[in-house]
Design goal:
- Helix content is 76%, strand content 0%.
- With 280 residues, the protein is an all-alpha fold.
- It has a single domain, classed as UbiA prenyltransferase (Tetracycline Repressor, domain 2, Orthogonal Bundle).
- α2 (13-29) packs parallel to α14 (254-274), α3 runs antiparallel to α6 and α8 packs across α9 (156-173).
Length: 280
């Protein structure tokens, strides 16, 4: 049981659960049947498990060198072999379930996971570290729409919202670890532009995502935006403003990442409540 709990902590539980919850909202917004939503959610959950565990498995030596006491694999609570078995098994389950939903879902989800694994495997240390987040989160809405009986890519505005929110996730997630990363030679995009510029760009991403969802949920007619949609959009705008304010006043921490993930959940709720399909 102790080993299982340690392995669970290696999955990055917070982001894993948030992304899984987002898949539920996207499935509903795509108009999927109940059974398809269940399969989609479980598939995304296992895909996120594989991404999180593989990240900590690849980084175990680096985490050990910088004394990351919050990393079970680096602490030896989970063996590297067990971690890789769990990561690969989770990947197989995720792809098998995606294939059950259709070839399009399998391809889209496969690219999403491959992009995330590529980040884990080395792209995080390059100037294009943001690209896997643009790709994976940009494809995320299409994973849902391609799971329908009549598969289709997601609408452009849903893809845009996913991509810019993915960029914001990357820009804020690495901020607390910038110093540790520099020690071990990790110099991704946020490291090169600095903490405050990263936070500012993340805020812009949140705002663009909010605008895209408002536009799309109203069918391109701002006059048709419901009062509740404006309220939810205002909450997201407040998160963007808070991101900038916190970055200016003090060293950015985990709170900025939580603000971005919270904004993503609010936008997913807005899509569900609007009743507008996210399919193209």
């Amino acid at each position: 049981m102790r080993a299982a709990l340690a392995l669970w902590r290696s999955t990055h539980p917070g982001p894993t659960l948030v992304v899984t919850a987002l898949s539920l909202g996207l499935g509903i917004a795509a108009g999927l049947d109940a059974w398809r939503i269940v399969v989609l959610v479980v598939s995304v959950f296992f895909g996120q498990l594989s991404i999180g565990i593989s990240n900590d498995a690849i980084d175990s030596d680096r985490d050990r060198r910088v004394g990351r006491t919050d990393k079970p694999i680096a602490r030896g609570e989970v063996s590297l072999r067990a971690a890789w078995v769990a990561a690969i098994a989770s990947l197989v389950v995720a792809l098998a379930l995606s294939g059950w939903l259709g070839g399009g879902t399998l391809v889209a989800h496969g690219i999403l996971i491959a992009s995330a694994w590529a980040y884990n495997a080395g792209l995080k240390s390059t100037a294009i570290s943001i690209v896997p987040f643009l790709v994976s989160f940009g494809l995320f809405p299409s994973v849902a729409t391609l799971s329908a009986p009549t598969p289709a890519l997601a609408a452009w505005w849903a893809t845009l919202a996913g991509a810019v929110l993915g960029a914001a996730v990357h820009l804020t997630n690495v901020l607390p670890d910038l110093d540790d990363d520099r020690e071990t030679g990790v110099r991704g995009f946020p490291h090169r532009i600095g903490a405050r510029w990263s936070a500012a760009l993340a805020a812009v991403g949140i705002l663009v995502g909010a605008g895209a969802v408002v536009w799309g949920s109203a069918g391109g007619d701002i006059a048709r935006v419901r009062p509740l949609s404006w309220v939810l959009a205002a909450i997201v705008v407040a998160a963007a403003v808070a991101t900038i304010a916190l970055a200016v006043r003090r060293a950015p921490g985990r709170v900025l990442f939580r603000l971005v993930m919270g904004a993503a959940l609010v936008l997913a709720l807005q899509l569900v409540l609007s009743g507008v399909s996210i399919a193209a």
